[in-house]
Amino acid sequence: MSSSPPSSPSSSPTPSSSPAPSASASASARITALDVLDVRFPTSEELDGSDAMNPEPDYSAAYVVLRTDAADGQEGHALAFTTGRGNDVQAAAVAALAPHVLGLSVDTVLGDLGTFSRTLVHDPQLRWLGPEKGAMHMAVGAVVNAAWDLAAKRADRPLWRLLAEMTPEELVAQVDFRWLRDALTPDEALEILRRAEPGRRQRTARLLEHGYPAYTTTPGWLGYSDEKLTRLAREAVAAGFTQIKLKVGASLADDVRRLRTAREAVGPDIRIAVDANQRWDVAPAVAWMRALAPYDPYWIEEPTSPDDILGHAVIRKELAPIKVATGEHVANRVVFKQLLQAAAVDVVQIDAARVGGVNENIAILLLAAKFGVPVCPHAGGVGLCEMVQHLSMFDYVAVSATTEDRVIEYVDHLHEHFVDPVRIHDGRYLAPVSPGLGAQMHARSLADHTYPTGPVWAARR
Amino acid sequence: MSSSPPSSPSSSPTPSSSPAPSASASASARITALDVLDVRFPTSEELDGSDAMNPEPDYSAAYVVLRTDAADGQEGHALAFTTGRGNDVQAAAVAALAPHVLGLSVDTVLGDLGTFSRTLVHDPQLRWLGPEKGAMHMAVGAVVNAAWDLAAKRADRPLWRLLAEMTPEELVAQVDFRWLRDALTPDEALEILRRAEPGRRQRTARLLEHGYPAYTTTPGWLGYSDEKLTRLAREAVAAGFTQIKLKVGASLADDVRRLRTAREAVGPDIRIAVDANQRWDVAPAVAWMRALAPYDPYWIEEPTSPDDILGHAVIRKELAPIKVATGEHVANRVVFKQLLQAAAVDVVQIDAARVGGVNENIAILLLAAKFGVPVCPHAGGVGLCEMVQHLSMFDYVAVSATTEDRVIEYVDHLHEHFVDPVRIHDGRYLAPVSPGLGAQMHARSLADHTYPTGPVWAARR
Questions:
Q1: Using an 8 Å Cβ cutoff, are A451 and A265 in contact?
Q2: Residue A267 distance to chain B (closest CA, Å)
Q3: For residues A346-367, average pLDDT
Q4: Partner residue facing A305 (CB), from B125, B334, B341
Q5: What is the H or E stretch that residue B375 is in?
Q6: Residues 260..279 of B with a Cβ closer than 8 Å to A: which?
Q7: What is the ipTM of this complex?
Q8: How confident is residue A49, by pLDDT bands cut at 50, 70 and 90?
Q9: Of the candidates A8, A84, A353, B122, which lies 20 to 30 Å from B295 by C-alpha distance?
Q10: Residue B153 shares a structural domain with residue B216
Q11: What's the start-to-end Cα distance of chain A, in Å?
Q12: What does the DSSP assignment read for A180-223?
């Protein structure tokens, strides 16, 4: 039997033209390798990245390289992000996908990435480990993203641009509408994309000139002193950011003092978001945030379990006009669908490496557009900024057609390891111009940080 | 910092007496090994187990053995169930927990399994792979269940009896109330358990005499001919079952014919449940079931995504009085909580190997009791019947105190591999009397089915 669900009409129609129109010379090229590396950074030695639920993360990546025997020698690079322990499990989940990928025709895969991603997501045996959640789904996302990186490189486009140049019909064909149709039909998705078609060229030009708004979490890690918080908050404003974010949730007294400190440092006009990293039950979330309300928090992020749609709806109702944001741990489009149906969030925080890759994130962007909710991606970690900026920029050009109330998270960690690191100027992400998804790391960084044998880790044993 | 969330009051109080009161001689005993085996059965060669989303499962187990240096030589056995591919990923997830377990004092672990389970669930790095879902959470469940098996063996009790003899306070201490308190507080849980205390002795005696009601899925796999369906359905009724189940969702015309065939075979008084294994979106679920309604289906199981709480609520409202059931793929107690809050299910289908083990299933049983919804466990696969019967029997003795409208699924696959296989008589599970959780397999079965090196698989290469 087919591993692709036959009831899903979204597996057709085939896009009328390939997103990777290159290389008739490589018509017989095959995928020859799916390599995965366990790469970890000893970030727990600093308190950068500390929050109420992640006291000591070692930012890590199950790093994926898709190789082919095409003459162009191009590779697809992507990663699944983890916070240290368990990165080996994540790598094993990626490796389990190799039999589904090796030997496939490069043109077939890249010519219909919608079918490729659905085939991985719906493997009838592997899906038992989810379905569509946890390590196995993140592995699918990494492999799908590696294929998109390869497609973008072969098309000589940064990913955002490859996506933004696809037709509405081609984009709709990327989406798995299974379990979405009560909230978003293929026809509605097409309508959203067609409505945004007219201004694509102007918005692309604007993006290339001005970039996309960012906010910064750099000042607000839990482990920082008030002095460091004040200094970094002022530096953020001076650097052009109009929004910063503070981690909260460990101690209410500390949080009141820290938010007051930050508010005094930045003045009334800068937005300050706060982030509890899932720390609370519903009632404590409401009570805690009411205590912080005098200092005008802009949004409360991850107030409770990422699975608790109904809990978020209650919190949002109780706390308005403080906004409610979540998404970095939301497992898939079905949970995002319900957060929107239940009016449970004001801000959708997509993550480049949590769900089933670019294809599922296109679905989530379309859902957010349907419900009129802004998307402000989660980023940070390692490589998340590099990857997710492409999705917001695509959203601006071809889906929501606006940057109003939209910002991409920025954290200034670990960018030096990337071949094409993000470029921030005056509080904005500059649009990437190099081909691909942006996740490719320097060979030296990969070798140094391979766990546990690389020199960075060998020196610590 | 502690890996156990400090805001959770449920980590205290410590139970007043240990659930494993044995062995002062072993006071210094330690956990010395956490072994994991990749064991697979080539069930896809038959069409037993075929359904609309699992056309060709190879029932498999990431099989866990917890060993100690105690003089009693007892081991804890449990398993995470998968359907073939990915069982290696599941085994890697179990192995990732070894550093959290090796060297721990046996008495400390078994004396407070609530804290033990919360420590595994909330590891601040491993939880990134969920949180509390997918392969990593199932691995936690398997290790927690292996510890319960060891506790029950050391207490010389079948697990259901060990649990049913714990005080309400001890049972409440097993539960992680994080994210539950808007639906169930520790005090409410205590009240539910205290209300059921008076009749424990009589219900235990009744269980030992009469067993617990079962239903059978044996007749209804999608791959069976109508003749085989008719024969097996009649055999099920003759064997004392009052409920059978049919898989549906591949073809409406076939399903109408099969359900009519089954109804004709068993008559009007036998309940026939149907199971779509997540196949539908919301509207098709309603339409398909309306076409089956003339044949009086008792419940529709997994009509759509296990994550779609709001979708289940709509389907239930539209289809009443046909009941809606789900749970075998519900990732954790937070999703079960919402299914109950949203009045989205009539039947809660716990699974012994999906969530974080016995502790989280106690939480789910308490939630179901709070909302007055019957629990009818999912079973089948390999070892799921052997394990989950203990949870229903505990529920009967000490939580819900009733078997009304409650049945445990029974499938007659692979029981011969278990040291203490389930015993079915007159359509009922007989209460287990051997110590432990029931998941222990014969050494020969493990060796034969080890993947890919065991003789069963070596012969197929």
A1: no
A2: 32
A3: 98
A4: B334
A5: none
A6: 278-279
A7: 0.94
A8: low
A9: A8
A10: no
A11: 49
A12: TTTT--HHHHHHHHHHTSTTHHHHHHHHHHH-EEEEEEEEE-TT
Instruction: Confirm whether B180 is domain-assigned.
Output: no
User: Same domain for A222 and A369?
Assistant: yes
Are the beta carbons of B180 and A281 separated by less than 8 Å? Answer: yes
Is residue A378 part of the annotated active site? The answer reads yes
Mean pLDDT value of segment A363-367: 99
Distance CA B285, CA B303 (A): 6
Tell me how far apart the alpha carbons of residues B210 and A359 are, in angstroms, rounded to a whole number.
53
**In this structure, is the dihedral angle defined by the CA atoms of residues A9, A13, A19 and A24, taken in order, positive or negative?**
positive
> Which pLDDT score, from 0 to 100, does residue A409 have?
98
The verdict on residue B440 lying in a domain is yes
A3 has pLDDT over 50: no
B135 touching A (Cβ < 8 Å) = yes
A433 lies in the same domain as A310? yes
pLDDT exceeds 90 at position A21: no
pLDDT digits (tens, 9 = 90+) for B240-263: 999 999 999 999 999 999 999 999
Measured between beta carbons, the chain B residues lying within 8 angstroms of A335 are: 307
Q: Fill in the DSSP letter of residue A5.
A: -
pLDDT of A5 reads 35
* End residue of a domain, out of A157, A173, A192: A157
Q: Do B337 and B436 belong to one domain?
A: yes
pLDDT in tens, A304-336: 999 999 999 999 999 999 999 999 999 999 999
The verdict on A256 and A130 lying in the same domain is: no
Contact B319, B291 (CB under 8 A): no
Question: pLDDT confidence of B85, banded at 50, 70, 90?
Answer: very high
- B52 — pLDDT class (breaks 50, 70, 90): confident
Which residues of B are part of the catalytic machinery? 247, 378
Q: Which of A153, A247, A413, A449 is catalytic?
A: A247
- Residue A286 touches partner B, C-beta closer than 8 Å: no
pLDDT category of residue A26 using cuts at 50, 70 and 90: low
Which domain, by its residues, includes B419? 200-449
Output the domain CATH number for residue B34.
3.30.390.10
Closest CB to B85 among A85, A125, A281: A125
Q: Are residues A384 and A331 in the same domain?
A: yes
Minimum Cα–Cα distance from B80: chain A residue: A129
Is B273 in the same domain as B355?
A: yes
Contact A281 B182 (CB under 8 A): yes
Q: For residues A162 and A436, is the Cβ–Cβ distance under 8 A?
A: no
Tell me, what's the pLDDT at A48? 66
Interface of B with A in 315-374 (CB under 8 A): 329, 331-332, 334-335, 337-338, 341-342
Burial B10-21 (b: 16+ CB within 10 A, else e): bbeeebeebbbe
For residues A212 and A101, state if they share a domain: no
User: Per mean pLDDT, which range of A10-14, A59-63, A203-207, B380-384 is the poorest?
Assistant: A10-14
CATH number of B348's domain? 3.20.20.120
* Nearest residue in chain A measured CA to CA from B285: A179
* Residue A238 belongs to some domain of the structure: yes
Q: Among A132, A157, A182, where does a domain finish?
A: A157
Whether A338 sits inside 8 A of B310 (CB atoms) is yes
* Chain A residues in contact with B56 (beta carbon < 8 A): 1, 124-125
**CA distances to A155, A317, A398, A459, B344 from A23, in Å:** 10, 54, 26, 45, 52
d(CA B183, CA A397): 43
- Give the number of domains in chain A: 2
Contact B84 A125 (CB under 8 A): yes
Residue range B301-319: average pLDDT? 98
